User: Which sequence fits this backbone?
C-alpha cells in the first residue's frame, strides 16, 4: 500500500538516504552526495516553508521516496519527486503522483506541472501515465555530474 504524508523532522534520515543514491544525485543535477548538515538545515527550513511542502512516500509503511510541492505564483504548482532505487520500476512513483494530484485538488484552478529531462524515460512514463501532457516549454539545466546542459521539458497536468 502506498501512502503520502507530510514530512516531519523524523523523516530526515530517510530523505537523506534517498538524496545520496546515485540516481537521485544524477537526476537532481548534482555531482556528489549532499553534505549531511547542509541538507539537514535546508530540510528543517523547508518544513516551515509557505512555498514548498515535502511529502514522504511510504510503501507498506516503509519510507521509499519524496515529493516536493512548490507553490509558484498565484495559480501554479510545480511537483518533483524521487524514489529509492530499490523501489524503482514497481509503479510506486506512478501511484504516488496519482495520490499527489488528488491531494492537490484542494487548490482549485491551479496549473500543476513538472519538468522532466528529455532523456529520463522512466519519469516521462510516470508523468504521461498520470495525464501530464508534454509542452514545447523547455529550460536548459547544467548537470554537474556530466558537466553538460540537459533539456528539461515542461509537462502540464490535464484533468
Assistant:
Amino acid at each position: 500500500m502506498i501512502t503520502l504524508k507530510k514530512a516531519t523532522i523524523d523523516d530526515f534520515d530517510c530523505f537523506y538516504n534517498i538524496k545520496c543514491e546515485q540516481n537521485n544525485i544524477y537526476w537532481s543535477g548534482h555531482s556528489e552526495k549532499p553534505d549531511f548538515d547542509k541538507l539537514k538545515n535546508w530540510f528543517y527550513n523547508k518544513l516551515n516553508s509557505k512555498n514548498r511542502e515535502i511529502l514522504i512516500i511510504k510503501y507498506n509503511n516503509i519510507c521509499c521516496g519524496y515529493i516536493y510541492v512548490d507553490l509558484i505564483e498565484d495559480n501554479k504548482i510545480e511537483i518533483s519527486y524521487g524514489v529509492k532505487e530499490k523501489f524503482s520500476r514497481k509503479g510506486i512513483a506512478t501511484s504516488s503522483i496519482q495520490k499527489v494530484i488528488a491531494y492537490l485538488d484542494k487548490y482549485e484552478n491551479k496549473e500543476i506541472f513538472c519538468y522532466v529531462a528529455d532523456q529520463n524515460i522512466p519519469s516521462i512514463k510516470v508523468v504521461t501515465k498520470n495525464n501530464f501532457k508534454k509542452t514545447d516549454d523547455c529550460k536548459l539545466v547544467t548537470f554537474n555530474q556530466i558537466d553538460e546542459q540537459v533539456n528539461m521539458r515542461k509537462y502540464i497536468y490535464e484533468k
User: Anything to note?
Assistant: The helical segments are 12-19, 22-27, 36-47, 92-103, 121-129.
